[in-house]
């Protein structure tokens, strides 16, 4: 609950900055500097070195792209599963898709969580477009396409010129 209250406070700061500066393009670095200098908003405490390193490791894990031996298509090697601890804190445990200990259940949970994230993004996109269309009814409505099947098909067959699926860099075997 503390985070929601803090987020509301931060939104008030953003709105106050917009009123003070008259700007409608919000540069969060400028808002943060202004909030600290003008309002005395304290800077947040820095995460521990362990948390900082863990964040960098997670970012690297997301970039672990491998290539299927048969199809030569890229896939992500390391995958997280989000968990919630007893105190409500969230954390992720990662697994290697190619590890013999990786179960179907782990992969199913990962895929479901990622799909749920996509659905949440699509829902918010639709709500944002619906609001824009309602308050700007004199303009042509924005109609986001939520069926991504065609886009996925296109990207699946797109050849990335920078990809290097094997060590010698030859993609034309």
Q: Could you characterize what this model shows?
A:
The structure is a single chain. With 173 residues, this protein is mostly helical. It has 3 domains: 1-45, no CATH class; 46-97, no CATH class; 103-158. Helices cover 50% and strands 12% of the residues. It contains 5 helices and 4 strands; from the N terminus they run αααββββαα. The strands form 2 sheets. It has a two-stranded antiparallel ribbon. Strands 3-4 form a two-stranded antiparallel sheet. A hairpin with a 5-residue loop joins strand 3 (78-84) and strand 4 (90-96). The chain is extended.
Instruction: Specify Rg, calculated over alpha carbons.
Output: 22 Å
Number of strands: 4
Shape: extended
Q: Structural class, from helix and strand content?
A: mainly alpha
Task: Tally the helices.
Answer: 5
Strand order of the largest sheet: 1-2
Mean pLDDT, all residues: 90
**Count of spatially separate domains:** 3
Low-confidence stretches: 168-173
Helix content: 40-55%
Largest sheet: 2 strands, antiparallel
Through-space gap between termini: 56 Å
Percentage of residues in strands? 5-15%
SSE order: HHHEEEEHH
SSE layout and pairing:
Layout: H1 2-21, H2 28-39, H3 49-62, E1 65-67, E2 74-76, E3 78-84, E4 90-96, H4 104-135, H5 149-157
Antiparallel strand pairs: 1-2, 3-4
